[in-house]
Amino acid sequence: MKKITIILLVTIFSITSGCKKYTEGFDVSPNQPSNVTPSLLLSNGELALMVHYTGQLARVPSILTQQSAGTDFQFIDVANYLIQEGDNINEWNSIYGALSSDKTLIDLAGDANPHYRGIAKVLTAMELGLATDIWGDIPYSEALKGADGEAFFNPHFDSQQSVITEIQSILSSAISDLDPAKTNLLIPGGDDFIHKGDVSKWITTAWMIKARYANRLSKKDPIGSANDALSFIASAGLSSILDSSDAMAVFGTNGNELNQWNSFNNTRVNYMKMGKYFIELLKSTADPRLPLYATTDDDGNYSGTAPDSSNTNTSNLGAYYGSEASPLPLITYAEMKFIEAEANLRLGNTQASADAHNAGVIASVEKVTGATIDPLYLAAQASETIGTITLEKIMMQKYIALFTQTEVWSDWRRTNYPTLTANPNGVVNGIPRRFVTSFDERINNTNAIVISDILKPVWWDE
After folding, report:
1. Helix axes 38-54, 260-267, angle to 10 degrees
2. What percent of the chain has pLDDT over 70?
3. Distance (Å, rounded) from C-alpha 330 to C-alpha 225?
4. Measured between alpha carbons, how far is 326 from 328 in angstroms, rounded to an integer?
5. Is the pTM for the entire model greater than 0.90?
6. Is the separation of the CB atoms in 445 and 89 below 8 Å?
């Protein structure tokens, strides 16, 4: 990765959040470039997205859904559901810093550079989606207009329903911008860490995100959301169980480029361990992903820590997602197959549902293991039929396939699968369903909608 983009990323995050943890391990230059270019802004925007999708906003949901366990210091608080208004100030502020940077790129690219503009719109939609999934109603329509005067210093919150509608609109506009036939003065390339300037892959990613947020409305509009999701997946044009259009967060081996799970576990030893529920689930089916997802424990076995325990003698995150340069998923072919399975099941298309489920399991297993799926596991877990497919089976396999992703928490809230038992020692009577309003927003924005109840469902979860 280009060090200058790391410097820009840290500069923006320092301005928006003042958070030390974002600068630890970075070589920060006191100099700033005199001219901001689309290339620098694109790299900056993608790195910001990777921070948000694979950092703290992934670790906390992993604990809440019992894929991981919080076992020391502030992560014991997470395990005990003590999630307060000051805990995620940095993440809230840095998302808005990234949205501001993405807006600058959209404006700077303009009609002369629709491909840069289109990628920036996809990044915007993904940042908005993550924020609204976690906090519910959020500022957007007025949030980035501070330069227009005092009327926008206290932006009103947009309803989650309107934010998701806006996400779909932004993505449709991005798809139009990304048309390979359009003329551009500047062409994305190495500055695009995710797809290396391949706009056809960005179009696929945009359709995949559209499918994700169509399916998000399964409680609100079961049939309409299913039809929309299937239509968007069809438009994505996915063709392979190891499709190269998967959008991945990429990392390097230098100190300022490391995979965030790896960096966190190395600098915060024993803050997190593998979750007991997740490990026991994988063991119960002899899942071939287990030795890649987790290390062996102190006794040479695979084990996890229960939500009400702080045992640190259990397994750590494995090499597949936990090595210093391991890519981490943002959105994948496997996720699309499980959405396809869920949507078809809602529509009564059970054969199509079973076929998509089986394809999703095969895709995940073969990508993680790098080998053809074992016939015994295939027969037991990826051979569902019209008479055996259920929502629980779909969501359980999706839960395994989307390990490390915030999406697992959203799925659990929508479907109540997997069936998790809340930590009996938790400070609230249930697993949290949202984050509370950030302290900074509560005290600085007179128009803030303040939510203090972490058990209160967001709109699409009602």
Report:
1. 60
2. 92
3. 21
4. 6
5. yes
6. no
Under 8 Å between Cβ of 342 and 379? no
**Rounded CA separation 455/355 (Å):** 35
Residues above pLDDT 90, as percent of the chain: 88
Residues 239-277: b if buried by 16+ CB within 10 A, e if exposed: eebebebbbbbbbeeeebbbbbbbbbbeeeebbbbbbbb
Spatial contact of 315 and 274, defined as CB atoms under 8 Å apart: yes
Nearest CA to 338 out of 302, 282, 392 is that of 392
The SS3 assignment for 213 reads helix
8 Å CB contact between 40 and 33: yes
Round to whole Å and give the CA distance between 205 and 182: 18
Contact 442, 448 (CB under 8 A): yes
The percent helix, strand, coil of the chain (3-state, each to 5) is 55, 5, 45
Distance of CA 130 to the CA centre of its chain: 7
The structure tokens listed for 332 are 């994948």
Report pLDDT for 239: 75
pLDDT tens for each residue of 14-32: 333 333 333 344 344 434 4
